[in-house]
Amino acid sequence: MFVLELFSHYVLHFERYFILSRQSTLLIQWSIVVLAGLYLLGRHPKINRYRTMFLAGVLLRIVLLAGVSVELIHQVQATNFTSAYLREDGNELLPLVHFLLYGYVLLTAFHYMLMPRDHSGKGMFYTFDLAVVSLPIVQMIFSFFSYWKEYPDGVEPIEFMFLFFIIIFPIVLNVLFFKLYWRTNKILLGLFYTLIIGLLVLLLVPFSGRISIDYGAVMPYTIYLTMAGFLMSYHLFQKSGKVYVRVNKWLTMAVIVFFVSLLNPIYNAGTAAFAVSKPINVQGSFNFVGEHISSEKAEQIIKSFFPTNETLYLHDTKMDVHYFYSFESLSYEAEVDEVSQLINSYQYLKKPRGKTLTDQEYVRKSVAFLERHGRVLNKEHIETKVSKEDGQTAVRIYLKNQLHKKDNDDDGTVFYWEKETLMSFSEDPSIYQLDSLLHVHITEQDIQGKMKKMFTALNIPKQPYQITDVESNGLLGGLVHVETKDGIVVEFESESGSLQSISLPMKKNISLTNNQLQRQILSVFDADVSEIKIKSRQGDKAVYSDSSHTYEFFEDQGQLNVYVYSALDKSFPYTYSNGKLAYEKVASVYRDVIYKKRMRPIIVQRGNERHYAWLIIIQPFGSNRHDAYVVDGETQEVISLYES
């Protein structure tokens, strides 16, 4: 069972990280089956095995080039395919190089192993394949010169030395390869493998204190090195005489059985593993189901704030869903939160225009900008601060803490003006009226009732309090922070309004030694005191639980802090095959062409209520957007993550 679960996770790795598209996966799977079938058919005495495998090789490469074309069409439609964009982001070629590595290199290697030893067409295939896997390197060279032409001051002299190395190394390796193909020379062979192995180690091992390697950036080189290394190794293996004759027959059959059992599209080892294996642990949870905005609406929001006639390109994301949509045009970059619909960041990329204004004029422009776009300021509780930073005028609008002095340098909605141009901008929901925030469902009246209940339960005299912060994050969820005059801090979840934490200043009767106080605090969280059990208690920390929640008490920096967590008391009950059925249910009604898909087990959370479900993520062809659907694990009900 452990082996099957491990294998399931390996298979799902390609889905989790969107490594191969659905089209590429099917192409690879069916090509494996067809090649294996043609090889077995070629064993028939009346069929010319040489001609069959040669034609199979030609057709295979035509199909693979069609696959490369499909990947390029998707990328051109989905991204701003310019040299500057490639140089800055570096991920636009990843789908293509992934297909070359896991599709082209794998399938051509499989085909070579099926070809007869003395086939005269191998040299032609070698030349063609080395040329194809060199294409990403050629693309990078042309991108460099295109970028240099557009931004001549943006290229350092040392980068030309690096470019020279990029150009020269495939030329040297190709010359060595074909010299060795026609006649083996031990010195040249040693030089060839030294270059291959040395460059792979240099590219893939993090030397010089580097913690990690950006494998996407080095893949164009590793693909070429892998292909060249395999071709030379297999060429030498076929020339080895007795070793080849003794090993080749069972090796070829073993490779066929291995690939067909793993990759056939009808029923493979992955399908069998999915039928019995379950997720080992479920860590992801999702809030605001049905309230996320689509990429189309996010683009409308961006254009309403920052009008442009230029094309806005949506950046890809490595996460399940975007959580925040990141757009780029020739003039600016902007990011909008997927739940709160607030602008996380905006950066103008061109030169400022207009004349320099006074500080008060910049403040008025900033406030007018927010009001013009429908933001409702909490004017009774906000302040403004103007400063000069790097030649720009920074206007900060922040929520004033009327009960305690606080440093607000890192809080608030911030504008950076240069002349009359807004160069940078980011929003903080704390400065807006609570009922105007779309993602906040708790009202000030709700907070008033909950605070009154807390004062009564803890026998604390009623005292002034204020909302001091509103957190909004599509990834982490939302919280409303409330602080009292005596320093009590309370946090409410913005979606459900449920109480999430309490922090009390420690006094003589407020500590972990006061068991009566702990029971009173638990009643504030609506805990069933009759079911409460103590899970652990040591020093300055105590943990309690009931049938559905865990309550953590701990002392820190003069405060007694209490947090509540909802927990499911059983492991994920569904197998991966249930997840596949959930995907098929979503795919049956999905309108666009599915380019990539992913399924993963999640916990759907609303307040203190939780249940297991499947998250189905689909990336449509020709777009970087991720469409997400939540499928209830028990009822199989499909709910879009996005607002209707």
From TrEMBL:
Keywords tagged on the record: Membrane, Transmembrane, Transmembrane helix
**Transmembrane ranges?**
20-41, 53-73, 93-114, 126-148, 160-180, 187-207, 219-237, 249-267
Lineage, top-rank taxon, reads Bacteria
Record protein name field: Uncharacterized protein
Q: Which organism is it from?
A: Bacillus spizizenii (strain ATCC 23059 / NRRL B-14472 / W23) (Bacillus subtilis subsp. spizizenii)
Q: Output the lineage of the source organism.
A: Bacteria, Bacillati, Bacillota, Bacilli, Bacillales
